[in-house]
């Protein structure tokens, strides 16, 4: 009886899958694909009574980072894989859900949200409640390594070991998955943001040049590399001279960026090694055969597959569309909501 009622309403609802990333949030509507793919940034304006109002969310808000006047704050509410600002995270989730769902819509959707593995129970509850406040009928949470593995097309339900490394903005999440469950997982707070920060520090020390996080991210994407390249890449970067205070520019090479990122990349490799060390022998055998799959934006760092492969002595592959893997996996989990092992969800 209740199942019937659920299905009747389910037929009208646009169920949603949300990849709530620290760098990017993606929303996928069941049967329609990805509807939103925007930075997890919210610009807040504080009025003269001290009340906060959303000015912009997503790309528009990211464009304001580092450029806002006093009464506007561009906030990244999720940092280092944790919720740094509950209130703004809630506002962001509600904004995205309402944006795809439309206010007039009669339906109240089921929502699957993928969250970083390291979230506390309090943070999980906050994520769920914000989706419920935005009109969700049911909210299910799925762990990031599981969603990444599903999205990368790994046979997660089979009785064999699959190893996925998801390198996002705030966290690198490593998971060994077998029979639809996470057997071993590890989350470290070293990923894209820390790489950007290490580039800011390096450029400051080496060239006395002050650059912002956004410029550092551009350098990482444009010329960053984990391995020595046959032909070095060079670009010009502008910033403020720390000593003179003047605006100036310097030439930076891919070798500089490799040096800047070396320590953080080593930490990612160490985390992967430690997961491999803990993997039960039978599953390890499968991984030796199937290799390691990289997802998340960090998978796109030049030569990272080779770099990790040389260290762990295993084949390392980059998933197709690594930036979309978690969202796609969350979408598949949504499709299979009624079928998937309940253990994969936390509801
Ligand atoms: N081509 C590229 N080369 C290197 N890094 C990239 C590239 N494209 C995106 N990134 C980085 O990937 C990160 C964002 O990845 P992704 O969207 O997978 O993270 P997220 O899911 O939002 O974060 P998290 O998994 O920590 O919650 C950013 O740090 C971004 O700079």
Description:
- By secondary structure, the protein is an alpha+beta fold.
- It has 4 domains: 119 residues, 2-Layer Sandwich (Nucleotidyltransferase, domain 5), CATH 3.30.420.40; 35 residues, no CATH class; 90 residues, Nucleotidyltransferase, domain 5 (2-Layer Sandwich); 69 residues, ATPase, substrate binding domain, subdomain 4 (Actin, Chain A, domain 4), CATH 3.90.640.
- The chain is 39% helix and 28% strand.
- Helix 3 runs parallel beside helix 4.
- The structure holds adenosine-5'-triphosphate.
- Adenosine-5'-triphosphate binds next to helix 6 and helix 7.
Provide the fold topology:
Blueprint: H1 2-12, E1 16-20, E2 24-29, E3 33-39, E4 42-46, E5 52-57, H2 59-62, E6 72-75, E7 78-79, E8 82-83, H3 86-101, E9 110-115, H4 121-133, E10 138-143, H5 144-151, E11 162-167, E12 172-178, E13 181-188, H6 192-207, E14 209-210, H7 213-223, E15 234-241, E16 247-253, H8 254-278, H9 281-290, E17 292-295, H10 304-312, E18 316-318, H11 325-335, E19 345-346
Parallel strand pairs: 1-9, 9-10, 11-17, 17-18
Antiparallel strand pairs: 1-2, 2-3, 4-5, 4-6, 7-8, 10-19, 11-12, 12-13, 14-15, 15-16
Adenosine-5'-triphosphate binds at residues 21-24, 81, 116, 144, 166, 168-171, 191-193, 217, 220-221, 224, 296-298, 300-301, 323, 326.
